[in-house]
Amino acid sequence: MKLVDLHLHSNRSDGLKPPQEVIRLAAEAGLAAAALCDHDTVEGLEEAMEAGRRFCIEVLSGVELSTTHGEFDDLHLLAYGFDPACPELLASLRDFRGHRLNRSRKMLRRINDKLIEEGRTPFEPERIETLAEGAIGRPHLALLLMERGYVKNMEEAFRRYLTPCNEPKRPLLTIEAIPLVHRAGGVAVMAHPLLLTRDMETLKSLFVELIPHGLDGIEAYASSATNDESDQLVTIAAALGLIVTGGSDFHGLDGGEIRIGAGKGNLRIPYRLVEDLKKRLPAN
Predict the structure, then answer these.
(1) pTM, two decimal places
(2) What is the separation, in whole angstroms, between the first and last Cα of the chain?
(3) Which helix (H) or strand (E) holds 34?
(4) CA 201, CA 9: separation in Å to the nearest integer?
(5) Would you state the torsion angle of the CA atoms of residues 260, 264, 265, 269, taken in this order, to the nearest 10 degrees?
(6) Per-residue pLDDT tens for 103-120?
(7) Which residue in 18, 34, 51, 279 has the fewest CB atoms around it within 10 Å?
(8) 3-91+183-280 has which fold?
């Protein structure tokens, strides 16, 4: 059975590896298709697609949008199959990257204040500008702390610095993001819904709320889901007429437990989900 991974990150957002390396690893894992879904940026897509041609693996256009809906203030939306050159989408993403950069600058200032209080050398403000080629994320700040030896790992970086020094994200309404994805020619899929809540009835109600706004599908197969939970999500999706997708949410952390194409070891995402996704594209 041909397998896929439709949720991968590169160093264009909060992953650690370049797009071409991510796709090379996907091909090395024996996958038939992959999707680079960096946060709020498509900067790595051209490189990823070129790598797909080089390593003989199908690469779908993808991006992960941070949105908010009702009580869920961090609802992630995956877009697939869109035109990466869509002017409206690019303008929206540029706006978001500008906000992320300002957010990271503010966080770095707060981290520096904390480091000074601890008697440690703060970071140069210019350092934030060279962290990533796309959308800068908190893991990049964590890497700075690890490079200096101020923390041992990502977990300690978040616990001691990033969480206490956090700055709020700029909200994008989910009901605005979905039509934006459609206007760019893509489909809109809710990412890892179980990270919002593990209550299936609550999730089902959320899906029902968003279907009139154009929600196309849900990421039923994810590293955050058990096999039984994935089966429940697939059943709900089928009853509501939603497509399902799946992905590992790979970020490339050294020693991390999430692997491309396998997640935490239980993922086996069939290629037929890509075929279902393509049938849902507005052009079809």
Answers:
(1) 0.88
(2) 25
(3) strand 33-36
(4) 30
(5) -60
(6) 888 999 999 999 999 999
(7) 279
(8) TIM Barrel (3.20.20)
